[in-house]
């Protein structure tokens, strides 16, 4: 419990929620609090800074520190991070400059007659000059607000600037570290992997496996231009030096994660209820109503991430299959085992981000998505040799591939080895029919997917996917989306682009659309419609007869 004066000089008392108290009590080098909106996470960062500046060992009766608060943009800093900071550290204690980059100095005499002299900076990472300032200055500790918006390599790079202030001839720092907060990320995020799978332990002494090229790529995106090349090289060298020093001293860089309870719960019938374990409710306007009044108009996934504090993805735009795809209906509850007597159908998308889907069609006509393989900044040959072919050999050994379809653009050329993509596929699968999908037009391919999403096979959906394919699920719920038209000038409603945004999700979705379109009219045990390629395709009905004979 801490007491601070507000702008009027009145005392305000800070009583940390239980999870935040454990966060404040920890001296772990990397600390991260996860939780719902309104749970007091950012206040915890401000309070941690207040405590750390007073605990710094004095040198000649002065406790010197330099801290930095980081977010991707200055608008986010100004409206969230800085506003919360000023609530607990009023201008009378520490005047913060009104022009970016924001900074200030707190000077305060403590009861033991020592003087606190604490510099604090608020830096965004959306301008090259600010990134340069971050990696050219020396700090005692760093605070990252909404850490899921930064790559883990950048977190590691920030760590390399600690502890460089105060210098050793001023006594050095008595503690240093990186404190972070975040709303919930998705299940592919580095935070999920480290918090839930303890992946940082597998990397040895350092909290993460440092990849210099990954950091170089991220810094180049933040600081484009040859004038920053020297700073980028120096930053990477600093990170390597920091990790080498830690390894030489055999001092691990541990991580610690503090997860708060969700603010609300969901009953089996879908009703939302207050969570009695929720934190910081007493400090919210309206208590639990702070959340319940925002539920109307919010998507289930948004509520799940920001109110229920569960891992998930929220996207800006209109999902391509909004209103058609249902998590409960189209994602199997348990992993789908392939039907060994039935053939496989493969769909491909090409370009610099190739993707492949592996599907089956049951005798009753249910389309099953078994596996998805995608590779960013790669080519088809690498995808085939390093991912798909080993998977087919191990997981689908002995199973026949009935047909392969790909994006028609694959006939124009290849980034693999000079051959076009279809020639490469035919070489790798010499006994399998390989054809372009019947059209490259978006609308008929989308209609084909909707066909599968909206039909039933008895009491079962006509389409179902394996729950292990979390990335594809995210594509369906919103990663594959129509982006809103900026400044459209529409008087009513919102206007979106007619074609989906090209992103990491669009490539596996395009591959799946090829299969969905081509199998839409395939014959099944309940539909004797002739196959579109009768000489090449072993139908599901024929395969089933062979399987049960």
**Total separate domains:** 3
**Can you count the helices?**
18
Question: What gap, in angstroms, lies between the N and C termini?
Answer: 74 Å
Extract low-pLDDT stretches.
Answer: 202-207, 488-492, 528-549
CATH class value of the largest domain: Alpha Beta
Q: Give the strand tally.
A: 21
CATH topology assignment of the largest domain: Rossmann fold
Overall pLDDT, averaged?
Answer: 85
How big is the Rg?
28 Å
Q: Name the structural class.
A: alpha/beta
Strand order of the largest sheet: 5-6-4-7-8-3-9
> In this structure, how is the largest beta sheet organized?
7 strands, mixed
State the share of residues found in helices, binned by percent.
25-40%
The percent range for strand residues is 15-25%
Looking at the structure, what is the overall shape? globular
CATH architecture field of the largest domain: 3-Layer(aba) Sandwich
Oligomer: single chain
Describe this structure in words.
With 549 residues, the protein is of the alpha/beta class. The chain has 3 domains: 246 residues, Rossmann fold (3-Layer(aba) Sandwich); 51 residues, no CATH class; 222 residues, 2-Layer Sandwich (Nucleotidyltransferase, domain 5), CATH 3.30.420. The chain is built from 18 helices and 21 strands. Strands 5-6-4-7-8-3-9 form a 7-stranded mixed β-sheet, sandwiched between helices. The N and C termini lie far apart (74 Å).
Question: TL;DR?
Answer:
It is built from 18 helices and 21 strands.
Please tag this protein with its features.
disordered C terminus; Nucleotidyltransferase, domain 5; 3 domains; 21 strands; alpha/beta; 549 residues; Rossmann fold
């Amino acid at each position: 419990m801490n007491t601070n004066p507000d702008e009027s000089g009145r005392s305000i008392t800070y009583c940390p929620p239980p999870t935040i108290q454990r966060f404040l009590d920890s001296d772990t080098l990397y600390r991260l609090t996860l939780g719902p909106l309104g749970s007091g996470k950012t206040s915890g960062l401000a309070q941690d800074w207040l405590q750390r500046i007073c605990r710094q060992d004095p040198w000649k009766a002065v406790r010197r520190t330099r801290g930095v608060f980081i977010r991707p943009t200055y608008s986010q800093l100004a409206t969230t991070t800085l506003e919360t900071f000023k609530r607990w550290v009023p201008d009378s204690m520490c005047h913060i400059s009104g022009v970016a980059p924001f900074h200030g100095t707190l000077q305060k005499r403590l009861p033991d007659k020592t003087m606190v002299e604490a510099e604090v900076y608020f830096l965004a990472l959306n301008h090259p000059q600010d990134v340069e300032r971050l990696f050219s200055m020396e700090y005692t500790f760093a605070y990252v607000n909404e850490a899921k918006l930064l790559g883990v390599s950048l977190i590691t790079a920030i760590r390399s600037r600690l502890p460089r202030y105060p210098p050793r001839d001023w006594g050095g720092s008595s503690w240093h570290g990186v404190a972070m907060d975040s709303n919930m990320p998705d299940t592919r995020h580095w935070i999920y992997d480290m918090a839930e799978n303890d992946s940082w332990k597998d990397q040895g002494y350092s909290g993460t496996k440092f990849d210099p090229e990954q950091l170089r790529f991220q810094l180049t995106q933040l600081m484009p231009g040859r004038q920053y090349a020297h700073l980028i090289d120096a930053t990477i060298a600093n990170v390597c030096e920091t990790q080498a020093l830690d390894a030489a001293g055999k001092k691990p860089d541990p991580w610690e994660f503090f997860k708060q309870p969700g603010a609300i719960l969901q009953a089996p019938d879908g009703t939302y209820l207050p969570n009695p374990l929720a934190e910081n409710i007493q400090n919210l306007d309206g208590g639990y109503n702070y959340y319940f009044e925002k539920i109307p108009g919010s998507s289930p996934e948004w509520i799940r991430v920001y109110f229920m504090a569960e891992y998930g993805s929220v996207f800006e735009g209109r999902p391509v299959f909004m209103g058609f795809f249902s998590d409960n209906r189209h994602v199997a509850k348990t992993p789908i085992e392939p039907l060994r007597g039935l053939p496989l159908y493969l769909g491909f998308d090409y370009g610099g981000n190739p993707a492949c889907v592996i599907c089956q069609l049951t005798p009753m006509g249910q389309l099953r998505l078994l596996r998805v393989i995608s590779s960013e900044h790669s080519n088809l040959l690498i995808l085939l040799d390093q991912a798909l072919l080993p998977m087919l050999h191990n997981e689908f050994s002995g199973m026949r591939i009935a047909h392969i379809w790909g994006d028609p653009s694959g006939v124009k050329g290849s980034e693999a080895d000079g051959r076009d993509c279809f020639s490469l596929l035919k070489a790798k699968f010499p006994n399998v029919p390989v054809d372009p999908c019947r059209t490259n037009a978006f609308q008929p391919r989308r209609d084909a997917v909707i066909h599968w999403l909206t039909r039933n096979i008895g009491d079962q959906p006509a389409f179902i996917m394996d729950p292990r394919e979390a990335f594809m699920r995210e594509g369906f719920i919103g990663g594959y989306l129509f982006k809103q038209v900026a400044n459209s000038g529409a008087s009513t409603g919102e206007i979106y682009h007619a074609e989906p945004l090209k992103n990491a999700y669009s490539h596996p979705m395009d591959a799946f659309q090829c299969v969905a379109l081509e199998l839409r009219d395939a014959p099944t045990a309940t539909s004797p419609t002739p196959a579109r390629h009768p000489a090449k395709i072993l139908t599901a009905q024929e395969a089933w007869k062979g399987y049960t004979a």
